[in-house]
Design a protein that fits this description.
About 10% of the residues lie in helices and about 25% in strands. By secondary structure, the chain is mostly beta strands. The strands form three sheets. It has a four-stranded mixed beta sheet with strand order 2-3-7-6, with no helix packed on it. A three-stranded antiparallel beta sheet has the order 1-9-8, with no helix packed on it. It has a two-stranded antiparallel ribbon with strand order 4-5.
């Protein structure tokens, strides 16, 4: 019975099934470290690097992705747009990259009122928020706040949510 294991799964052997009958989950995990279970390692997932917009409108960008800025006079996704080019820092644009993990901004000075087309006073920037995400996801199991489900072949560990 040599089976690849997934996160939160431990393969049971006959020895383990007898031990599980009256023992706590901790015993099962101690047996795992003793080499009773299969030693096949789980493959590391390779996720696509992409942009993501959350339900509240925040835009998250994988920090490794290049950024190109476009401008349009129409909000429609299919509208004609122009790629912005920098004359003063062309060596750092097209593509450009975000330097800071987390909150980043694109700014334009001196906001203009959309109804009157007059500069807003006191002067204020127009700020566009972008969130850079370059960290790999981390998972952990909180002991004492977990539940397990057993089948004939596997033990599944899951986080117990309040």
């Amino acid at each position: 019975m040599n089976t690849k294991l997934r996160i939160g799964q431990f393969k049971k052997t006959n020895f383990c099934i007898r031990r599980l009958a009256g023992k706590a989950l901790l015993t099962t995990l101690m047996l795992t470290s003793a080499g009773i279970f299969s030693s096949n390692a789980q493959e590391i997932l390779q996720h696509e690097k992409r942009f993501y917009q959350s339900e509240d409108g925040k835009l998250f960008v994988n920090k490794d992705l290049p950024l190109y800025l476009r401008i349009s006079s129409d909000p429609d996704d299919d509208a004609k747009s122009w790629l912005l080019k920098s004359n003063t820092t062309s060596q750092y644009s097209n593509p450009m990259y975000l330097d800071t993990e987390g909150w980043n901004t694109l700014r334009s000075p001196s906001a203009v009122d959309t109804a009157t087309r007059k500069t807003v006073y006191p002067l204020q920037d127009i700020v566009f928020d972008i969130y850079a995400d370059g960290f790999k996801p981390k998972s952990r199991l909180l002991w004492g706040k977990s539940v397990n489900v057993r089948t004939d072949e596997m033990v599944f560990l899951a986080r117990k949510w309040n």
